[in-house]
Amino acid sequence: MRGAVLHGPGDVRVEERADARIVLPTDAVIRLSATCVCGSDLWPYRGIEAVSGPSPMGHEYVGVVQEVGSEVRNVKPGQFVVGSFFASDNTCPICRAGYQSSCVEREPVGGLGAQAEYLRVPLADGTLVATPELPPDDLVPDLLAASDVLGTGWFGAVAAQVGPGKTVAVVGDGAVGLLAVLAARHFGAERIIAVSRHEPRQKLAAHYGATHIVTERGDEGVARIKDLTDGLGAHSVIEAVGTQESMMQAIRSTRAGGHVGYVGVAHGVELPGEELFFSHVHLHGGPAPVRRFLPELIDLICRREIDPGRVFDLALPLEQAAEGYRAMDERRAIKVLLNP
Amino acid sequence: MRGAVLHGPGDVRVEERADARIVLPTDAVIRLSATCVCGSDLWPYRGIEAVSGPSPMGHEYVGVVQEVGSEVRNVKPGQFVVGSFFASDNTCPICRAGYQSSCVEREPVGGLGAQAEYLRVPLADGTLVATPELPPDDLVPDLLAASDVLGTGWFGAVAAQVGPGKTVAVVGDGAVGLLAVLAARHFGAERIIAVSRHEPRQKLAAHYGATHIVTERGDEGVARIKDLTDGLGAHSVIEAVGTQESMMQAIRSTRAGGHVGYVGVAHGVELPGEELFFSHVHLHGGPAPVRRFLPELIDLICRREIDPGRVFDLALPLEQAAEGYRAMDERRAIKVLLNP
């Protein structure tokens, strides 16, 4: 089968890979309807995260079940399914508490390479959620967004305890940040401040429900958010970048007693304990337990109540994955969908 | 009036200070019934926190109102009152959200010096809570504990979302940690693991409701707590020390999706962002908004349902404050009560 492989910084190639097949009786193999490039794929692409040898890429996927292992009960061949970037059994105490991305049996899907024609999904019963029926083609990008970026933005909003009457700020205007805006509106936020300096992203943020745009970063951005909140800071701040600057901007933009939901994968971040102590904020985040939200997200998408697929502003054939990486690296595209 | 003053590391003297008096119309002056030495007083006493010149000490207090300013409405002379270490207006949006120790008008009481015969309390209406009647002498230590260490341990348990059916660990066996055990039992925790290597403190922890004692610190302590929790970690962990080691022990002892409540004043702590991200814990804490809890704590004490005053294992006349500091510094006493 064909699949994208990272050979070194800036060097993504679509080439022949071994066919995905059932290895364990709890596996499923799906034929991908669509896949995509994630902001987190850019860390190794840019050489910031080391890779040891050629690495199959991709961890976002939707598709049709081709084959299931002998112990799989919840999905069957022919169904359209959505999964996420950690396979999980969905039965352990951590999963039952809603933290499937820390499942005691979890397996990263990234290593299996979802930017391909087919994908082996471990722990299929716990990991995959089927749509009620085969979705029309125009909903496929929305369902693909649910696989990671929508579920991650959603978790950011849940972790930040977004709710009616609250002022919410979102730090980061990538696909996750934009979909955190969508989630904040869904949860009834009164005001949603998007931090963005890129006009096309500001427009999409406004489409998703942002009521205010702040273009400043760092302490200037903090000051602007305080200006908008009687000097107190926002009730809820969603961090969707993962750098020292963005984390500190998020913490400092939050009022005492407020909530920071952080979902940008932290790189080189060190939080000063004393400042955090006196900030009085709640801090929660991490790799989003997307599985927790998938049934609700699929339902909202199938009823066309949300349109997260608009974050895909470039679609390419899988064979042109290298161009997709370039477009995201150069910020020419928010998020690139790949058609196998 | 007489009061304790820190002149330099290890040098506490009880000497004549200017009388406490009404400065602002929102002030009250109270005659102290009892005061005490706090673990946080040891930071400047040990020279770890710098002081600029002679500093009046103490921020824990109960006593009888002597005089009130012209705008004070909620307390009156003759009442027995309890306050906490930050004066707060109790009306601003931050106070109304329950974070009185981050009140927009807050004033630290520490600078006013509560280890004395009299104390000026700013923002008296927002800060002080009167008991229903003058308490009997034997309840005074319990009420004094409510002023800081009980309220702080209580906040730790609330921040760690302690509740029925949960396994709770408490890192730190000072007065705050021990009273966090008391709070955890009050909130219905199923198992309470106290981290302590000091036998008298272990006994008091058991009296307050600890079901397990762990003597190991750092990663060994983490391993012991994981052993007790099917390898998952505790649901709720209360951190009551404030060092890098204790914070990391608390975070690593918490299961994914669990809650760390941290109330030890952070000194030199840097939290590694990536580890925190993948830990999936909730983190909340800071200077305890004791005012939020005072009405409930006073009620529980007056009905003799809790006995937090047992943390005072040494009582001295105010004039012997220096010996009180020495006893706590050398860990000969858990907490020292001073009688003015």
Shape of chain A: globular
The CATH superfamily of the largest domain in chain A appears as: Medium-chain alcohol dehydrogenases, catalytic domain
Report the structural category of chain A: alpha/beta
How would a textbook summarize the main sheet of chain A? 7 strands, mixed
Second-tier CATH architecture of the largest domain in chain A: Alpha-Beta Complex
CATH class of the largest domain in chain A: Alpha Beta
Task: Kindly estimate the percentage of residues of chain A that lie in beta strands according to DSSP.
Answer: 25-35%
Total helices of chain A: the number is 12
Helix amount of chain A, in percent? 25-40%
- Detail the poorly predicted runs of chain A: none
Oligomeric grouping of the chains: homodimer
- Which value, in Å, is the CA radius of gyration of chain A? 19 Å
Overall number of strands of chain A = 19
GO molecular function, one term (chains A, B): oxidoreductase activity
Cofactor (chains A, B): Zn(2+)
Protein name (chains A, B): Threonine dehydrogenase
Keywords (chains A, B): Metal-binding, Oxidoreductase, Zinc
Please characterize this protein's 3D structure.
Chains A, B: Its cofactor is Zn(2+). Chains A, B: Belongs to the zinc-containing alcohol dehydrogenase family. Chains A, B: Residues 8-338 form the Enoyl reductase (ER) domain. The structure is a homodimer of 340-residue chains. Chain A is of the alpha/beta class and 340 residues long. The first copy, chain A, folds into 2 domains: 2-148 and 289-339, Medium-chain alcohol dehydrogenases, catalytic domain (Quinone Oxidoreductase, Chain A, domain 1); 151-285, NAD(P)-binding Rossmann-like Domain (Rossmann fold), CATH 3.40.50.720. The first copy, chain A, is 29% helix and 27% strand. The first copy, chain A, contains 12 helices and 19 strands. In chain A, the strands form 4 sheets. In chain A, strands 3, 5, 6, 9, 10, 18 and 19 form a 7-stranded mixed beta sheet that branches. A 6-stranded parallel beta sheet of chain A has the order 13-12-11-14-15-17, with helices on both faces. In chain A, helix 5 packs across helix 6 and helix 8 packs parallel to helix 9. The radius of gyration of chain A is 19 Å and the shape is globular. The mean pLDDT of chain A is 97. The A-B interface holds A 93-94, 97-99, 101-102, 104, 230-232, 242, 244, 247, 255-257, 262, 265-274, 276-287 and B 93-94, 97-99, 101-102, 104, 230-232, 242, 244, 247, 255-257, 262, 265-274, 276-287.
